[in-house]
Amino acid sequence: MPPKKKQKKDNGFMVFMKSMKPQLEAKGHKFPRGLTDVIPVCSPLWNKLSPEEKASYHQKAKDGGGTTFIKEERCDTRGVPLNWKEREEQKKISEKDHLLQKVEDMISYFATQGTLENHYFYLAHFNIAVTTSEGEYPPCEIAIVKFSLLDGIAKCYHDFVEPGQIRLGYAHEAKLHSENTHNIPTFGFKLANSDYVNITNNIKEMLKQPDGGIAPLFVVDEDNAKAIYIVDWLVKKSCQLDDSYETCSPFKIYSLNKLFYELRRQADVNNSTLRFSSIALVAEHFGKGMFFYSKNMACQWHVEEDNVTFCSLTRVRNYAYTISDLCCEYYGLSLLPNRHCPSEIADDNKYVVIPKVTKTEEPEALVEVKKKKEEEEDDREPSGPPRLPNTPATANFKGPGTGRGVLGGSMGPVSSATQSPGRSRAIETAPPAGRGRGRGLLLLADDSD
């Protein structure tokens, strides 16, 4: 038989912890390991109780029988209960679905109000110094663009950020990450801004709406966790520099992939061809980076470093140009240089939507002229004497370097009296061949003729 589970007698403190646990969880406390995590929180509270209050809890413990069975939970290698991890994963999934639904409802509302083309969205990208196993993403570069379908990119914000002290053990990893991506030095970068209050206030000012609210930031799905950490990190750093700074973060992070999906779909909800097959396909369009190497995409520092593709400013401008590329046509909107597309593309007239061409039959007179020209060209081509059926003409080859592969050398028949290391006389005096005939092989008349 399996051993019986251990029994533990309840005391007044145990009853007190069990009664306080729901109240603490309602206030935001989390206890992933159960009562083990409740002990350090409840101990100070228990010590503040009067002897009479403690006696009441001891009496409750006695009335309850004095014993209780401890439920054993399955845990991972770190001691975290698996049930708790599953609940957290389900919670994240439900939160993500809720945010995606918010974006869909937002775009649908603007479309019904007729203001979708005029509404401004804020697209963001963050470069980081390093990613730690503790879930930290200290930033080193920020870029945000104010974008609408009608005006394209109306405003840009860009700044380098001092990432601060890197967690012990990650200095080398941060150096490798910088060398492989954005090239921004982790330590001693002169352009890095350590005035976090100013950075945070600049972002708030850019996102501020007429009603006083703060517009959401849209980032690609793969950067969602990174963006949430960074905006909270900026607020915490600002509070450390300014004790009076507001501790509550006003920033909201939404899915840029979902935004792109809905903008294209709302161009014509009845046209199924405008709908991406999945949001994953949206990420592929952003990942292509078709505008990465255009002019005026990156900041000046990354241009001088010859590393424009990893600049945050390049990334956000590429987001805006990609959305314009695949959406504005269906809204009937004109493309403006440096707003919807790079200026050199607009100047070279390369960025033009070609209308569908319906094939029409050519006039008979034009067809007759073309046939007459073809017949005249055939008449001008050289032709040898007629040969009998099944009798091949004598084949002579050009000199070295004329044909392809083995046909490049002199392979024509040469008489023993005139044979020499050079090219044969027949090939030197051969008449010119027709245009493109033979592909390096000249079909000539017999010498006897």
TrEMBL record:
Q: Which GO terms describe its molecular function?
A: sequence-specific DNA binding
- The record's principal subcellular location, in a coarse class, is cytoplasm
| Annotated HMG box domain residues | 5-96
- Bias (Low complexity) occurs at 440-449
Q: Where is this region: Disordered?
A: 365-449
Q: To which protein family does this belong?
A: Belongs to the maelstrom family.
- This chain belongs to the protein called HMG box domain-containing protein
Report the source organism.
Daphnia pulex
